[in-house]
Write a structure and sequence with these properties.
The chain has one helix spanning 2-11; strands spanning 16-17, 20-21, 30-36, 45-51, 56-62, 69-76, 82-88, 94-100, 106-117, 120-132, 139-145, 150-153, 156-159, 165-166. By secondary structure, it is mostly beta strands. The chain has one domain. The radius of gyration is 17 Å and the shape is globular.
Length: 176
């Protein structure tokens, strides 16, 4: 209980994101929390995935520099779906992972890689894998590194003209 109260007090300091001012955060459920010094100032920054309003998860980023943001509906959650979670990758970038391994015939997982570059959080990469439990010939894999422009779709690599996308402008690709 003490941790929840501290977390609520901490999160109530969040300022704004996507042109909305946040003066407090009502946490219905905390899915994941992770801390690391992403902006390189020697102090820990914090990432939280919390239950959103529509059966989804909001991503909250709280930095020591005050570059705080709340990205609504960032990950799918709720119901019988797998809960989203957070990890650090080998480059210590934040990875938001979500997927479905529980219901229906379609299984999938996505990984959004978030890095701190040139004073802001950006989406540095995106991975998506899917399979059909009834059509065993259907498999989809997609991996994009927006820092290098390297995209691999179903094992075929190509170079694309890309750059990291500011996190506040990110939309997952819909043409995989």
């Amino acid at each position: 209980m003490k941790r929840i109260v501290l977390l609520l007090c901490f999160l109530s300091c969040i300022a704004e994101a996507r042109a909305e001012e946040i003066t407090s955060v009502d946490i219905k459920e905390l899915y994941a929390a992770l801390s690391y010094d992403w902006d390189g100032d020697g102090k820990r920054d914090h990432a939280f995935l919390v239950a959103g309003d529509k059966g989804d998860a909001d991503l909250l980023l709280v930095t020591s520099r005050g570059q705080d943001m709340r990205l609504r509906e960032f990950a799918i959650a709720g119901g019988m779906l797998t809960r989203p979670w957070l990890e650090l990758n080998e480059a210590n970038s934040l990875v938001v992972i979500q997927g479905n391994e529980a219901i229906g015939r379609n299984r999938w997982e996505s990984r959004t890689v978030i890095a701190f570059r040139e004073g802001q959080f950006v989406v540095a990469g995106y991975d998506y894998v899917a399979r059909d439990t009834l059509d065993l010939d259907f498999n989809l894999s997609y991996s994009a590194n927006y820092l290098t422009g390297k995209v691999i779709r179903n094992g075929i690599e190509k170079k694309v003209d890309s750059k990291p996308v500011p996190l506040t402008e990110w939309e997952p690709p819909n043409n995989l």
